[in-house]
Amino acid sequence: MADKVLIYSRFPKTMMARFAERFELLDTAGKPAQEVFSSDKLGDVRALLTGGGRPLGAGAMDLFPKLGAIVCYGTGYDGVDLKTAAARNIAVGHSPGANAASVADIAMTLMLAATRRILVADQYVRSGDWAASKPSPMMRPQAGMPGRRIGVYGMGEVGRKIAARCAAFESEVGYFSRSRHDVPYQYFPTLEALADWCSVLMVAVRAGAETHHAVNADILKRLGEDGYVVNISRGSVIDEKALVAALTDKLIAGAGLDVYAKEPHAPGALTALPNVVLAPHIGGHTLESHVAMQDCALANLTAFFAGRPLPYAVKTA
Amino acid sequence: MADKVLIYSRFPKTMMARFAERFELLDTAGKPAQEVFSSDKLGDVRALLTGGGRPLGAGAMDLFPKLGAIVCYGTGYDGVDLKTAAARNIAVGHSPGANAASVADIAMTLMLAATRRILVADQYVRSGDWAASKPSPMMRPQAGMPGRRIGVYGMGEVGRKIAARCAAFESEVGYFSRSRHDVPYQYFPTLEALADWCSVLMVAVRAGAETHHAVNADILKRLGEDGYVVNISRGSVIDEKALVAALTDKLIAGAGLDVYAKEPHAPGALTALPNVVLAPHIGGHTLESHVAMQDCALANLTAFFAGRPLPYAVKTA
To answer: Which of A90, B26, B117, B133 would staple A85 via disulfide (CB 3.0–4.6 Å)?
Structure first.
């Protein structure tokens, strides 16, 4: 009999087909598990697969008395109550680095699209305004990449890849992180100092209680009226209300966002703005990154059912 | 009395103000010169400033019997009839490399925006389709940058900068150029071979008779159904009708274009497509690149009126 895996989030059909080759899936498709399956069925569940940002606290874990492994698809695990998991001896795994390049690339895409105003530019061509030589204040030239100061917040695998890409654009790169890393970029001891220095802030820090609303009204104001913020981490790292206010009041020039406070919802005040580029959390959304993340998740599940430690376990400090 | 400069193309007011500090400007604002100024006035003109892509043949030069210098704003000079200019002993100058980083950056912006489908993504968020979990075939995952084969057509200053940036994205980079260069990228002896190999073709070659419609239906077909073409050179390098057909018939996956056959017009068949990203010839359109290009043009004009050779003369083979 195949080992059972509870699917806690909603995942694509093609991905589920691959997992179904190895395990018996109890697929909730993102609905509350107790609404989809009987408590008998849930009582048998020893492992579950989840999107790491989805809330998974003590109450949810209580639904699965035999739960031994929580496997997160992707790098993040901020939705998982790690303390409760540890207290109940539940192993927690994720896919570290599997999507780092793909996420770094969406950060670059959002930064370039926002600073070069590619949405406005595309619309200017498509609408016929270009052909009509219609004046467009939004199309005024902006500062380019050479010499631009890019601040990277967080120097994990994604942050490093963002920094390396920015350096190739002839930009200056600085960073803030809890600790100094062996990287060829200028270190700033506080996020405030980094924000004072840079004109683009790339948010690549791990989400959690420590970084909740770390990018607040004060940090945004420090970026200045030519400043941009790009977030590919989690919505929780930015105070979204403060961001909307800063963008609306033109305290900063623009933003590129792949993540939001309450996904899949982006606030209406944000979606009405012309100076933002918005993506629906597609950072890790490339063919090879999905394959790599699936490989990690399958390896974690396989090891768990074989009684071995998870090869890609979440490392808690 | 200030030296007179005929302004042959339409340029921004702020730029004209800077030139007016040094010269007396006869500004056509892009209209036919003989409609704006008397033939007496035109008869005095010894130097003109033009956008290098704007047609400037023997007939137009005949309007200015005393013409001694044609100064192109930007790198390109494909609109200028160099043979006639040489026969009439007219010096031709441009702004080599001044906008290379800015143009390379728009190439990267267009490539990333097209391959990661950022226009569709932004619309998916803004429309509320994401919040409604509406299926979107256009949002299916695509291949990312690591391991992608990027073909750069032309290895001048812009081509080199594109190649260096792509390498930082962990992509493989190949190129075709009239001759092999001392660069760490794979050389292909023909454009056909490059197109067979790559999945993104970056058009960065100098425009001219030799490269007119070099990217034709055959080259596009070789890119394949997962292939993209990005053009930041001149519209004339691509057979635009063949491109529209290839995009419409899905012989290739998409395109990112900053230049068109007949600017400022983009064909309606192109502006109706969802799998293209269109920019209104803004490659060199950054603050620092405008300043650098203006510096070159001012230096060329100043040298000419002082009886010296142009410091940024067009080098003809």
So the answer is: A90
Out of B148, B206, B234, B290, the active site residue is B234
The answer to whether residues A224 and A293 belong to one domain is no
B146 found inside a domain: yes
What is the number of domains present in chain A? 2
Are A251 and A112 found together in one domain? yes
Give per-residue pLDDT as tens, A16-69: 999 999 999 999 999 999 999 999 999 999 999 999 999 999 999 999 999 999
The shortest C-alpha distance from B20 to chain A (Å) reads 20
Residues A145 and A67 in one domain: no
The answer to whether residue A301 sits within a structural domain is yes
Band of the pLDDT at B278, cuts 50, 70, 90?
A: very high
**What's the mean pLDDT in A209-231?**
97
Residue B316 lies in a domain: no
Q: Chain B within 8 Å of A31 (Cβ-Cβ)?
A: no
Does residue B23 surpass a pLDDT of 70? Answer: yes
Of B144, B147, B285, the CB nearest to A141: B285
- The pTM assigned to this predicted structure is 0.93
Q: Does B14 touch chain A (CB under 8 A)?
A: no
pLDDT computed for residue B2 by the predictor: 85
Is the pLDDT confidence value at B317 over 80? no
**CB of B242 within 8 Å of any CB in chain A?**
no
Does one domain contain both A216 and A293?
A: no
Is residue B312, in this structure, part of any structural domain at all? no
Task: Given the cut 0.85, state whether the ipTM is greater than it.
Answer: yes
Q: Is B281 a catalytic residue?
A: yes
Chain A residues whose beta carbon lies within 8 Å of the beta carbon of residue B265: 131
Active site residue B265: no
CB contact under 8 A, A141 and B106: no
Residues of the domain holding B164: 100-278
pLDDT at residue B315, as a whole number: 86
Residue B20: the pLDDT is 97
CATH number for the domain harbouring residue A123? 3.40.50.720
Percent of the residues in chain A that have a pLDDT greater than 90, as a whole number:
95
Say whether B116 and A126 touch across the interface (CB within 8 A): no
Q: Which residues of A are catalytic?
A: 234, 263, 281
- DSSP for chain B, please give it: -PPEEEE-S---HHHHHHHHTTSEEEE-TTS-HHHHS-HHHHHT--EEEEETTS-B-HHHHHT-TT--EEEEESS--TTB-HHHHHHTT-EEE--TTTTHHHHHHHHHHHHHHHHTTHHHHHHHHHTSTTTTT---GGGS-B--STT-EEEEE--SHHHHHHHHHHHHTT-EEEEE-SS--SSSSEE-SSHHHHHHH-SEEEE-PPPSGGGTT-B-HHHHHHH-TT-EEEE-S-GGGB-HHHHHHHHHTTSSSEEEES--TBTTB--HHHHT-TTEEE-SS-TT-BHHHHHHHHHHHHHHHHHHHTTPPPTTB----
A205-209 average pLDDT score: 93
Query: Which member of B116, B122, B146 has the closest CB to residue A278?
Result: B122
